[in-house]
Amino acid sequence: MRNLICAALACGAITGAFAQNAEPQASPPAASTPASTADVEALRQEVQSLKEMVRTLQEQVKAQQPAPEKTNSNAPTLPQNPEEQTAETSSSPAPSPSAPPLFPTTDTAVVSSAPPVNANGTTLFPTSDESVTTTPATVSSSDTGSSLTQPIPIIGGGNNKNYMNISFDSVFALAASSERHLDRLEVGDHDPQQRGFNARNGEIALDGAVDPYFEGFANIVLKLDNNNQTEIELEEAFLQTTGLPYGLQVKAGQFFDAFGRINPTHPHTWEFADSPLVNGRLLGSDGLRGVGAQISWTLPVPWYSQAIFAVQNGRGGTAYSFRNPGDNGVFYGRMTIDRDASALHDMVFVPRIENSFNPSDTQTVLFGASGAFGANDTGPNAHTQIYGADLLYKWKSPRAEGGFPFVKWQTEAMYRRFEAGRGLDNLFPVEEIFRDWGMYSQVLWGFKKGWVVGIRGDYLHMQPSAFTDDETRQSRSRISANLTWYPTEFSKIRLQYNHDFLEENDFLASREADSIFLQFEFILGAHGAHKF
Amino acid sequence: MKQILVSLCCLIVAVSAHAKLKVVATLPDLASLAREVGGDKIDVGAMAKPTEDSHFVDARPSFVVQLRDADVLIDGGAELEIGWLPPLLQNARNPKIEVGKPGRVQASQGVRLMNVPTSATRAAGDVHAMGNPHFIVDPIIAKTVALHIAQAFSAVDPPNAAAYDANYKKFETTINAKLQEWGTAMLPFKGQNVVAYHDSWVYFGHRFGLNIDTFLEPKPGIPPSPSHLAEVIEKMKTQKIKAIIVEPFHDRKIAEKVASSTGAKVVDFAQYPGALPNTDTYVKLIDTLVARLSAALK
Question: Looking at the domain assignment, is residue A197 inside a domain?
Fold first, then answer.
């Protein structure tokens, strides 16, 4: 008898040691221990006497408690705050002469009861409703001592509890330059525009599922000009299909064209504090974007291959090389005509094809070719064609922490054929065809978690004109180097040095300029994930 | 001619009969569970590498192709992959793996996540608003995830439902048996404190009765600072902590420095099968983790 109790206690102690969530009902009955009928009889008497004792004690307690609602206090009292209850203090099953598994193999504190399995062996897939029933209440009924801090079940069917993600992202730059008019040296609208502080990109980004058929995106950009006046623009606002078959996707609204690598992206993803010369001078300081529609198709081939085709109005400053009236009605020296879309070919068409493959497990290559074709405002029959090619190579360590270390090499080249007409009422002396081209190449090395060093070379060749003294048509080159620290993916501080060299032409003298930028950025809210 | 046609037909039938279920898992641990359940009926690939930080995986275009062709996608579901999975899914255009479809398994379904923050502030570092997503290292949770995977496979591929069910049951039995082994091995160290580089071992600690709540990172995702490390060293000395857990992508030198000034041991851990030698399956991984940690705590 004593041996039996000792064994039971020992067993119980081990169970208790693991008893975070042991379920007593799962224990098999102790039938294996041999015991004589006399022993059983003795036990039965002992239990009987204990029962009597409990009953008398209960009555005493009842007599002492005046409040009638507390009469059921013979049940074990629950702790005031179950969340503070630790595993060790909870629900150790009473020592019993059973042989339960030493280590619990189930734990209702961490997993919900699994959906039932049919008798014929097929299983039922849980609908999202079933998983909602994983309420803390259900679990606590079977497991009175949940040891986890504030368990909240994950509701199946989407992670977002909001209908849209909202974020605000702001980029600032402190600039020093040997060039007095920094806005004439820098080619992008989000680039630093003056010596001193600049706030050229405060971006409110919204996105979310519109309904089961569409996703919606919007980017509203606020920026401060050199007189600290706020400019606002609807940079992007478009919807995109989610359920088209055959790998198709349609996008419609105001959006950046998928031309090359940098054009479709927002400044906070840029690896330099300013945009490349070729982007600013051939696609425009705002990038090539506009109102229109785009269809893209993932080709049914074993590697990544995507074809994209967009049609847009191609009008205004965000379609710089197309139907752009220019500053004060002048573009490349011509008085521009206000050219309506009289035919389909007056719109801008932007095709692109991109392919990707992985040379190894740690390397990725993506290359693409883009085009942009449309009319321009320098003459009634003037057209523009832009061709682009881009290449991205990235290596990332197989033991990357936070995405570091990595090496990334990106290059883009563009060629533009611009038919410059004689302008409004044939005022300009001649028609010209400008064949301009340029490229940039940049290498980024993320050498340590949060730290990136980068170098970029830029070249832009603008075909000399015998007639225009436009300073945007000056051939030039630039070398840039920078160091960026990302404390987290939501902030960054970047120091960049630029050396610019502007070539002499018939109207403009050659000159050089040195600039230093200290860029800083923060992101609030649900920051969207980055595409490759 | 007829014979050729017949044999061609036979070939086509044979090929389609042996067409395996195409499964994509975001993480290698999910892929490993899928392999247990799917056996030879599936082809499974993982996107993240076992040795890399799964919070920051590049959205490589090749993943778009994998997702486009997938019959089943298994993801963690607790925002671990939020930095890279959404644009891939957007580009994959595969309605079979949308949330809510049988072809989508979100592993966190039915898992009670630990360390759910009361308020979402990034001042606390890289905190997951839905709770700690590193839950597969708890074998009991792994069983539930495996069951969900088995159910998804059966729903998408009913002819092989019996096989998936049998494989799951086999896995469950193995884990139940192994739990006794692992529990016994870890029993002497119950209640001990262990230091980890990053907060990804709370479920493992909970399962085996260890307190893994001191970290070399001052806040999740924030690199260790000298002042914080000094505090950790002090704490380790007073609590006589014997082990520091690091993962393949962590800066082991920092852990070694702390170890040398406290007399603790650096234990190379990994959440993902394949990251450590001879850990190509889930069971082997937990075997290795238990063996390494119990050796260090002795």
Answer: no
The strand pair at A214-224 and B243-246 is best described as: unpaired
CA distance A364 to chain B (A): 7
Cβ-proximal residues to A263 (8 Å cutoff; 6+ apart), any chain: A256, A257, A279, A283, A287, A288
Q: Give A341's contacts (C-beta < 8 A, 6+ positions apart).
A: A313, A315, A323, A347
CA angle (B38 as vertex; B34, B40 as ends), nearest 5: 125
Contact B99 A302 (CB under 8 A): no
B179·A215 Cβ contact <8 A: no
Mind telling me how many Å the CA of A532 is from chain B's nearest CA?
5
Q: Is residue A14 part of a domain?
A: yes
Determine, for residues B116 and A102 on separate chains, whether the beta-carbon distance falls below 8 Å: no
Show the domains of chain B with their CATH numbers: 19-179 (3.40.50.1980), 189-297 (3.40.50.1980)
- What are the tens digits of pLDDT across the range B36-57? 999 999 999 999 999 999 999 9
Other C-beta atoms closer than 10 Å to the C-beta of A32 total: 9
Between the CA of residue B291 and those of A510, B28, B141, B186, B262, what are the distances in Å? 71, 21, 20, 9, 22
Calpha distance A164→B128 (Å, rounded): 18
B22 at interface of A, judged by CB pairs closer than 8 A? no
Element (H, E) at A2: helix A2-17
d(Cα A159, Cα A156) in Å, to the nearest integer?
A: 8
- Complex-level ipTM: 0.89
pLDDT in tens, A165-211: 899 999 999 999 999 999 999 999 999 999 999 999 999 999 999 99
Nearest CA in chain B to A246: B93
Answer yes or no: are the C-beta atoms of A274 and A192 closer than 8 Å: yes
B contacts of A159 (beta carbons < 8 Å): 77-79, 82, 130
Q: Tell whether the model's pLDDT for residue A86 goes beyond 90.
A: no
Predicted model pTM: 0.79
Which helix (H) or strand (E) segment holds residue A288: the answer is none
| The pair of three-digit structure tokens given for residue A69, joined into one six-digit string | 């609602």
Q: Give the model confidence (pLDDT) of A429-478 as tens digits.
A: 899 999 999 999 999 999 999 999 999 999 999 999 888 888 999 999 99
A507 lies in a domain? Answer: yes
Q: What are phi and psi of A366, to 5 degrees?
A: -135, 125
Number of structural domains (chain A) is 2
The pair of three-digit structure tokens given for residue B101, joined into one six-digit string: 């479809």
Q: What is the CATH number of the domain that holds A253?
A: 2.40.160.10
Shortest alpha-carbon distance between residue A118 and chain B (Å): 10
Alpha carbon distance A457, A484 (integer Å): 17
Identify the domain containing residue A261 by its residue range: 248-522
pLDDT per residue as tens digits for the range A412-422: 999 999 999 99
Measure the CA dihedral A64/A69/A73/A75, to 10°: 170
